[in-house]
Fold this protein.
Amino acid sequence: MKEEKEELRALQHSLCNTIFVNAQEPMLVLGLDLRVLLVNNGALKLLGWADGSLGGKPASALVLEKDLREFSDLTALAAKNGVVRNYRFYMLTASKSIVRLFLTAQALKDEAGAVSGFCLYLSPVSPDEWSALKDPHVFRNAARKLGRLTSIGQLTSMFAHDIKNPLHVILSTSELLRAQEGQPEQVRAGAELIERNARRASKIVKTLLDFSRSGMCRLEPYSLNDAAEYSLGLIDSALKAAKVGVDKDLGAAPKVFLDPHYMHSVIYNILNNAAQALAGVKDAVISVRSGWLPAEGEVFLTVKDNGPGLEPAMLDNLFQPFFTTKENGTGLGLYLARQIMDEHGGRIIVASPPGEGASVSLRFKKTV
Ligand code: ADP
């Protein structure tokens, strides 16, 4: 018995070294009070601390004074949802300079399932990437320069296709490995880790393929109301099962130039986001409105929910690729929606007045 325990401890130690201490990705573990409990070599290097000097430090050693509130909101959201991925943030180094990075905060749970701390993954950003992502104009131009390979271009779809098969092999092999009886604990835990990550990668690939099936946008005169009805039809049974009501008011408006395939994906994704935000909400309702805005000269479709809405700081992150606050999210839905609206010469507006849920509005100028 004692030997077994020691063996297990040795295993845990070597797993911790492989997965945490020597991992290339900078990582930190914080307690619930946001004090540093563990830090790996990558994070020590990135933040410029000597070994052993960051343990026990409070969040104020990692984050600018003015960002402390945002940081604690971020961890609170991770505690609620399990994870927040790829949040744009600044962190302090030992010498009080600033590193710009994408922060992923994963809630750690104890055996009873209560949140006991957070694992932070830090992904530093080069200045070019940063300004491109921060400034939609620069980003759009950069995307165009790249021949639209960022989202719906051919390269994405080729890449996604090519990567799908090897991923499938990784996934099924790791499943097999994990299910085999009599495996040492280390092999089983490793296989589980591979499987979980391969699943996430598969989901990202699937989203890219869903959005890129037909290559470039082909715009044709089409009723936005018909596109909305079609997408509502796709999600109808899921909404009924989740007891989410739909309040529909589709008004008269001219047809617009749109690609039905892409627009169905965009609207479905927005409805699906609303439905997910409404999980556990009493009297959950999604309202879907459309019509013509004479002052702006635009046809609109607005999807609004009475869910928890979004913090102002989250609104700034929404259209960034891979930003997600969901355990199984890809963070690609809104990013691709904005790209597609760009291709349509339209725009997408997200609003979340305090206490009023979230609303996402698609606007089209190219009317028939
Ligand atoms: P994903 O749904 O995979 O996370 P999206 O790009 O579609 O990716 O959404 C990014 C994030 O925006 C979500 O993780 C969520 O935090 C937020 N979000 C989107 N729609 C809503 C909504 N209706 N209410 C609250 N939060 C939302």
